[in-house]
């Protein structure tokens, strides 16, 4: 196994990190609680939190296909009409969480 593949396997195991910044009417509508509830049905870890500028930040780690399905499930859970925009960035998983939580 090449060194790069071995390192990825040991650290992230093929897992990715997805960061989504949601804008629209996303605070005060149960967004974080719904996202946490939806996360229970997926093999993902991470957190969701309100930002001071009115957006919601969601960071989740898992297999990329699982993360994409999780992101769609959030919209399908009744939140789509609150979301005006989603800014998605991808990076390598860091393994920071054991579950999915609402952050301060």
Which tags fit this structure?
104 residues; alpha+beta; Alpha-Beta Plaits; 5-stranded mixed sheet; 3 helices; 34% strand; globular
Proportion in β-strands:
25-35%
Please identify, by name, the CATH architecture. Answer: 2-Layer Sandwich
The gross shape turns out to be globular
**Major sheet size, sense and barrel closure:** 5 strands, mixed
Number of domains: 1
Number of strands: 5
Give the count of helical stretches: 3
Please write the string of helix (H) and strand (E) elements.
HEHEEHEE
Under CATH, the topology is which? Alpha-Beta Plaits
Name the CATH class. Answer: Alpha Beta
Q: Spans of 5+ residues with little confidence (pLDDT < 50)? A: 1-12
Percent in helix? 25-40%
Question: What is the SS-derived class?
Answer: alpha+beta
Radius of gyration: 14 Å
- Strands side by side in the biggest sheet: 4-1-3-2-5
**What's the end-to-end separation, in Å?**
41 Å
- What is the mean predicted local confidence, pLDDT? 90
Brief overview, please?
With 104 residues, the chain is α+β, with helices and mostly antiparallel strands.
Structure report:
This protein is an alpha+beta fold. The protein has a single domain, classed as Alpha-Beta Plaits. 33% of the residues lie in helices and 34% in strands. The protein contains three helices and five strands. The chain has helices spanning 3-11, 31-39, 64-79, and strands at residues 16-24, 45-50, 56-62, 83-92, 100-102. Strands 4-1-3-2-5 form a five-stranded mixed β-sheet, covered by helices on one side. The longest helix is centred in the C-terminal third of the chain and has 16 residues, at 64-79. Mean pLDDT is 90; it is low at 1-12.
């Amino acid at each position: 196994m090449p060194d790069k593949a071995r390192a990825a396997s040991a650290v992230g195991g093929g897992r990715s990190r997805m960061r989504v910044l949601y804008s629209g009417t996303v605070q005060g509508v149960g967004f974080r609680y719904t996202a946490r509830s939806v996360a229970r049905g997926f093999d993902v870890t991470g957190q969701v939190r309100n930002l001071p500028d009115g957006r919601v930040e969601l960071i989740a780690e898992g297999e990329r296909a699982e993360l994409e399905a999780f992101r769609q499930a959030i919209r399908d859970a009744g939140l789509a009409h609150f979301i005006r925009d989603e800014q998605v960035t991808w990076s390598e998983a860091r393994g920071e969480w054991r579950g999915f939580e609402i952050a301060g």
